[in-house]
Amino acid sequence: MRGGCRLVPLLALLCGLCHGRDLAPGAVTCGSVLKLLNTRHSVRLHSHEVKYGSGSGQQSVTGVEASDDANSYWRIRGKSDGSCQRGTPVKCGQTIRLTHVNTGKNLHTHHFASPLSNNQEVSAFGDDGEGDDLDIWIVQCSGTYWEREDAVRFKHVGTEVFLSITGEQYGHPIRGQREVHGMPTANHHNYWKAMEGIFIKPSMDPAKHDEL
């Protein structure tokens, strides 16, 4: 047993710090850019410069089956600047923002009805990553950190709904894409898993990253 790292959890933690080891090598980290898969319906969280024709009229958020669509990338950011330092593992229960990479708008929800299911509308809102308090979500998972291989939920802080898909499909101009909405109950429709992306490593060197 080298350095007593296997004897006591605290010693293992300290040993990892002393040697600059990754303390949560499988965790999703602040600053990472990724795609999110709804595990029930096998579609990725997506947005684009298409606005809702009803409700808020804001930029729509949908689910798409394609794994190679560049409009499905989201950046993990903190509740406010400096609250989620680059490369820091995201903890279960932590508040985050999800910023759509190609349009700079944040994942958002509010008290408008969604167009197909009449649940709560989910949109993309803001400019250059800055929106309002309705862009904040809690990561719900069972361990210490949000692990890449685990399915997690995103609960909206302001309205207490869960980011969900139940399978409704749009017609023209986004035919076949699924409605994304907020639901008040936790169920199998609101589990999400980290998929393709660039994951900033949780190490002493913030410049390191792991491209998948």
Q: Could you give a quick summary of the protein structure above?
A:
Helix content is 5%, strand content 35%.
User: Per DSSP, what share of the residues sits in E-state strands of 2 or more residues?
Assistant: 25-35%
How far the N terminus sits from the C terminus, by CA atoms, comes to 33 Å
Rg measurement, Å? 18 Å
Shape: globular
Order of helices and strands: HEEEEEEEEEEEEEE
Unreliable stretches covering 5 or more consecutive residues: 1-21, 204-212
Overall number of strands: 14
Provide the helix percentage.
under 10%
Average per-residue pLDDT, rounded, comes to 87
Class from secondary-structure proportions: mainly beta
Instruction: Profile the largest sheet.
Output: 14 strands, antiparallel
Describe the protein:
- The protein is built from 1 helix and 14 strands.
- The model is unreliable at 1-21 and 204-212 (pLDDT under 50).
- It has one helix at residues 9-18; strands spanning 33-38, 43-51, 59-64, 74-78, 95-100, 106-113, 120-125, 137-140, 153-156, 162-164, 178-179, 181-183, 192-200, 209-211.
- With 212 residues, it is mainly β.
- 38% of the residues are buried.
Explain the layout of strands and helices.
Layout: H1 9-18, E1 33-38, E2 43-51, E3 59-64, E4 74-78, E5 95-100, E6 106-113, E7 120-125, E8 137-140, E9 153-156, E10 162-164, E11 178-179, E12 181-183, E13 192-200, E14 209-211
Antiparallel strand pairs: 1-2, 1-4, 1-13, 2-3, 3-7, 3-11, 4-5, 5-8, 6-7, 7-12, 8-9, 10-12, 13-14
